[in-house]
Amino acid sequence: MADNSPVPEPRRSMAMHNDWWLSGWEHVLPRQGFPLTMLIGTASQPGFTGSLDDLLHEIFDGRWDMIGGDLDGALTFSWPNEEWDYEAAPEGREACEAARWEEFSTMLTTAGFPVPQTVRDLSELYLTWGLATREETSEGTRWSMPAALPLPGDLLPLDPELTERLDGIRWTRRTGPLLDTLIAHLIDDLGEPAETLTSLDQLAAATGQDVDDVRLALAELVTSGDARVQRGEELADAERLEAHRRFRLVMDWAHFHENRIQVSRG
Fold it and tell me: Name one Pfam family in it (predicted).
């Protein structure tokens, strides 16, 4: 006899916005910013209509430890059950948490935004900041997120140290893959030459990259001390190289191998 009992539908897979790490919000928001972004990213997928509470119940039966339970859980900057690293933060959890909250609250108040206390409060700020959109339709509540998240520095008065750190993170994430491709060409195809006479056009053709991307990768090599770019005997500005003009790329492989992980193509 055939079993006609209904088969339960698989639980919805979580989806994370690709721009989360590049944007730098994880260095600004309380720790629940990450799971909240994941929850909204999942709610933005085709086939879902409803509130974030509805989604939380659908996937986690209403309680998700990563987010602190539910949307009315209190925001924190540290995980309550994690073992505290007193070597990295000797002032202790409470003092560190208080300092982070003071910094965060001052930043939001200065910019004219309310200071969120719960995950739900933070989700409303996401709507205000343009990190998410919520629309009431005839079929129910629809969620969406922009392709590129607004940057924290465009909305909040970040301190100079944090601004510099986030700029560095974005630069590394932008140039890292480009640099890996260029280095793979120099190592695997050219055998780590001490120097090579080349041009941006030539490197772009050899690596399958855009000329501007090769220029960025070269600039990163020079900035990090792994290489220098010369026209004749004079140093040249890697960021101002013309695509067709030839130059000497002089590598410091000892410095490179001492400070970087070697990449190679399989």
Answer: DUF6042
